[in-house]
Design goal:
- There is one protein chain.
- By secondary structure, the protein is mainly beta.
- The protein has three domains: 176 residues, Trefoil (Acidic Fibroblast Growth Factor, subunit A) (Trefoil); 140 residues, Trefoil (Acidic Fibroblast Growth Factor, subunit A), CATH 2.80.10.50; 233 residues, Jelly Rolls, CATH 2.60.120.
- The chain is built from two helices and 42 strands.
- Strands 26, 29, 30, 33, 38, 39, 40 and 42 form an eight-stranded antiparallel β-sheet that branches. A seven-stranded antiparallel β-sheet has the order 27-32-41-34-35-36-37.
- A hairpin with a 7-residue loop joins strand 3 and strand 4.
- The longest helix has 13 residues.
Length: 582
């Protein structure tokens, strides 16, 4: 399977991890449910043999044989299942299975011999009954199921996995058992009134495709649109987190418009959405899910709202028009950047930001370091200000490291800074970033002082986030001074594991005070660098510092375990940078 698209590996690995952990609830944020009145289509589905754990795959993503040889689910091992009975997927329902290229599984002659993934039709040979190994009712993630062909035979993995998959099984035995994953978790709303408590107020939802803010017409009581370019009264909502604080991916929520009425998915989803309900019950209950990753939801996270039937709230054309509740997947029309107000405590005040919502880098906020390889840390990149290396697209900043031999140098990348445009003393400095991954990458979000007269390290340096590609998901925080720095092996530093740092966005931040610098990931404090009150040599952090973002290649640290020449290009994605002060 070495020819599979590598960008899909992280998704497959995530599915495998979830299966190993036995997880089901709260993992459906990247799964699709496309509902119509006749049927229900579930995409992102994987099937793993039970006897010898291997994932079922369609050779060449469809059009040929079906095998069960992969140890991780990638593109070839990801399918769509259409429930021909509609509604919730139940044991005994009739289904079709569709490979990535759009072709269907077919049991030749209706079963009893071969199975292929090369049919363009959905007739009797392409129809299977999905059956739970034990019990009846709703089929959920982790359930062991079998697929019975039209002629009565079962889909069977030869030797229980590791070889071909056929359609000749005589019963639901060990060769015919598959663990299913990728299904949307069913939202189970509570009965009665919403729980007593303070709702999450001043919440906004911005479409990621066209940057239109979700608004309740007239402040509630009618339709919803996603056309506003800024947040006013109609675009401000309250959330009631049914599961309790903190707000986390997978929680069930009610969304309330400014007039106090609730968002309602008619019939629980699959058609229209309004903001005119006076009750909080099933149709008004949504599961809030992060587009990538899990855990606490923070300002700027991309989320979806999934109805009780599995459909997603969807902004028509990605924004600019009406909003419905019929989205079949958490795709571009269904993705919203959530705003939850200022971080941490309410006395933080936003003083500077770049949301990267335009079409180009704002040169009134950012400059570039233009430098050749070897300038610092023996790094290999040629730092440029080319669009190929730094640009704004789809609502985020892209820093791209390339192996393109530009100007005769093997690697090129970008290093951006607010020097000469904005600098700060004390405050909360944060950015929401997805890291590039790849052996030899060295991304960083950091700060340097305006006053460099004493040179480095006496001038000071604050590394809010650093990571190296050979040690993915290990996030480092450091302060450097004359007394405490890496060359003296006395820098004040630590690291923390951030799962999915290269596959999803996370918020990296410092809260900088006269007596300390606190470091955070996703609002979780994991390190403090204290002022020991011994003077500037140990604590130069009492003056203006500016912000830097860069993606280095190789170097003393990033290249200490080598550089993969086949890993390029690699992108560091930045959703926003914000600075708050009190």
């Amino acid at each position: 399977m070495a020819n599979h698209p590598r960008e899909l590996f992280s998704r497959g690995a995530t599915l495998l991890t979830l299966l190993a952990a036995g997880c089901s609830a709260g993992t459906a944020n990247e799964r699709a449910t496309e509902q119509t009145t006749q049927s229900l289509t579930l995409s992102g589905i994987t099937l793993q043999t039970v006897l010898l754990p291997r994932f079922v795959g369609a050779t060449n993503d469809g059009g040929g044989a079906v095998v069960a040889t992969a140890s991780a689910a990638q593109a070839w091992e990801t399918f769509s299942i259409e429930d021909l009975n509609g509604g919730t997927l139940l044991s005994g329902d009739s289904v079709t299975i569709r490979a990535g290229n759009g072709q269907y599984f077919q049991a030749l002659n209706g079963g009893g011999s071969t199975l292929n993934a090369g049919s363009n039709n959905t007739q009797a040979w392409e129809t299977f009954k999905i059956v739970k190994q034990s019990g009846a009712g709703i089929i959920q993630n982790g359930d062991v199921v079998g697929f019975q062909a039209n002629g009565g035979s079962w889909i069977s993995a030869q030797n229980g996995g590791g070889s071909s998959v056929l359609a000749y099984g005589g019963s639901l035995g060990s060769w015919e058992q598959f663990k299913i994953a990728g299904l949307p978790a069913v939202v189970t709303p509570p009965s009665g009134d919403p729980p007593v408590g303070t709702p999450i107020v001043n919440v906004s939802f911005r479409t990621t495709l066209k940057n239109g803010y979700l608004g309740a017409t007239n402040g509630g009581g009618s339709t919803l649109v996603a056309s506003a370019t800024s947040v006013q009264a109609w675009e401000t909502f309250s959330l009631i987190d049914i599961n309790g604080a903190p707000l986390a991916s997978g929680d069930s929520v009610y969304v309330r418009a400014g007039n106090g009425q609730y968002l309602q998915a008619l019939n629980g989803g699959g058609s229209s959405l309004n903001a005119g309900s006076n009750n909080a019950s099933t149709w008004e209950t949504f599961k809030i899910v992060k587009q990538s990753g899990s855990g606490t939801i923070n300002t700027g996270d991309v989320i979806g709202l999934q109805t009780s039937t599995g459909a997603f709230v969807s902004a028509e054309n990605g924004g600019g028009g009406n909003v419905f509740a019929y989205g079949g997947a958490l795709g571009s029309w269904e993705s919203f950047a959530i705003g939850l107000g200022a971080p941490a405590t309410s006395d933080w005040r936003l003083v500077w930001s770049d949301e990267f919502d335009g079409n180009s880098i704002d040169t009134s906020k950012w400059g570039f370091d233009i430098q050749r390889p070897g300038w610092v840390n023996n790094e290999l990149e040629n730092y440029t200000n080319r669009n190929e290396n730094a640009r704004v697209e789809n609502g985020h900043l892209v820093l791209e490291a390339r192996r393109d031999y530009y100007q005769g140098y093997e690697y090129s990348s970008a290093r951006m800074k607010t020097q000469g445009h904005a600098s700060f003393t004390y405050g909360r400095v944060e950015a929401r970033i997805q890291l590039p991954g790849g052996w030899g990458t060295w991304p960083a979000f950091w700060m340097m002082p305006d006053d460099f007269s004493r040179g480095w390290p006496a001038c000071g340096e604050i590394d809010i986030m650093e990571e190296v590609g050979f040690d993915p998901d290990s996030i480092h925080a450091t302060t450097h001074s004359l007394t405490y720095n890496w060359k003296a092996a006395q820098q004040r530093t630590t690291w923390t594991n951030v799962g999915g740092a290269t596959t999803g966005y996370h918020t990296y931040a410092i809260e900088w005070y006269p007596d300390r610098v606190d470091f955070f990931v996703d609002d979780r404090k994991y390190f403090t660098s204290p002022n020991d009150n011994t003077g500037d040599d140990a604590w130069p952090f009492h003056k203006n510092f500016y912000v830097l973002l860069n993606l280095a290649v190789g170097g003393d640290w990033g290249g200490s375990q080598g550089v993969d020449p086949n890993a390029w290009p690699r992108q560091m994605l930045v959703d926003y940078v914000r600075v708050y002060q009190k």
